[in-house]
Amino acid sequence: MSRVALVTGGTRGIGAAISKSLKSAGHKVAANYAGNDEAAAAFTRQTGIPTFKWNVADYEASKAGIAKVEADLGPVDIVIANAGITRDAPFHKMSPEQWHQVIDTNLTGVFNTVHPIWPGMRERKFGRVVVISSINGQKGQFAQVNYAATKAGDLGIIRSLAQEGARAGITANAVCPGYIATEMVMAVPEKVRESIIAQIPAGRLGEPEEIARCVSFLVSDDAGFINGSTISANGAQFFS
Ligand code: CAA
Question: Does residue 144's CB lie within 6 angstroms of at least one atom of ligand 1?
């Protein structure tokens, strides 16, 4: 069945792969992005998927952006809260600004994305919420006190939403990617990245499409009884 799907941070990295995969599954996809107009235009040229610009850290902007998506495409039945940033630093060097930027985007951004969509899902008695967490929310990570806090927080969000939405036909699940070959991981110093790959039993970084396939399954009608769960896709780097 074709539904309307919103993917935040949906024009680059894992989000772009998710947007494309949901489109291939027959859904009408809206890809949100915050800043990179050039990448968004190239993404639309390449995929035909429309993009919508707003900052997920801003509640009013999210509400207005989602209203525009719904006016253009129809009510959102599938929402993928994927937008995220890193501001890595060892804790003793981490500034309050680095803390707040990551909390505002990665954690409050999930609230800002799902909250305006939730009442409509409750009324229509159907919804699929997927939050893209991270292996580093499960295990913690040197230089990522801020990021790990948000990604662990995602798991609390979906476990709570799952209980609130279950009777209304809404599921809320998380995917915890390991280290995936995206710009975010490529931004890590090369030496550090090599040492990370050495810790992955699969011996390689994951591909964005490997995360997109997890999401496509979780949003399918077949996954209706999977609620409050976490799928880890990390090449056997960590088990929780
Ligand atoms: N474990 C233990 N020690 C580590 C370490 C680690 N993972 N990484 C760095 N260190 C140590 C270094 O060996 C060095 O030690 P010495 O001082 O004894 O030489 C020290 O920490 C580096 O300290 P600095 O004060 O010089 O650090 P810095 O201010 O220059 O910061 C850094 C460097 C930001 C930590 C950089 O090394 C870095 O970016 N590391 C990668 C962090 C990381 O893995 N981020 C994940 C990004 S990908 C992602 O987030 C996607 C996802 O969901 C998986």
Answer: yes
> Which of 12, 188, 211, 237 is the best mutation target for the ligand 1 pocket, counting ligand atoms within 8 Å of the beta carbon and taking the most?
188
Q: Which residues of 90-99 are buried (b: 16+ CB within 10 A; e: fewer)?
A: eeeebeeebb
Q: How far is the CA of 97 from the centre of ligand 1 (A)?
A: 19
**25-40 pLDDT per residue, tens:** 999 999 999 999 999 9
Q: Of the candidates 137, 126, 98, which has an alpha carbon nearest to the alpha carbon of residue 221?
A: 126
Angstrom distance (rounded) from CA 227 to CA 153: 17
In this predicted structure, the answer to whether residue 95 has a pLDDT above a threshold of 90 is yes
| Separation of alpha carbons 28 and 229, rounded Å | 25
pLDDT at 240: 86
Question: Mapping DSSP to helix (H, G, I), strand (E, B) and coil, where does residue 62 land?
Answer: helix
1: confidence class by pLDDT, cuts 50, 70, 90? confident
Question: Is the beta carbon of 185 within 6 A of some atom in ligand 1?
Answer: yes
Answer for the pair 31, 16: CB distance below 8 angstroms, yes or no. yes
| Centre of ligand 1 from the C-alpha of residue 149, in Å | 17
Residue indicated by tokens 């803390």: 99
The answer to whether the CB of 28 falls within 8 A of the CB of 22 is no
Taken in order of first residue, the domains within the chain and their CATH numbers are 4-232 (3.40.50.720)
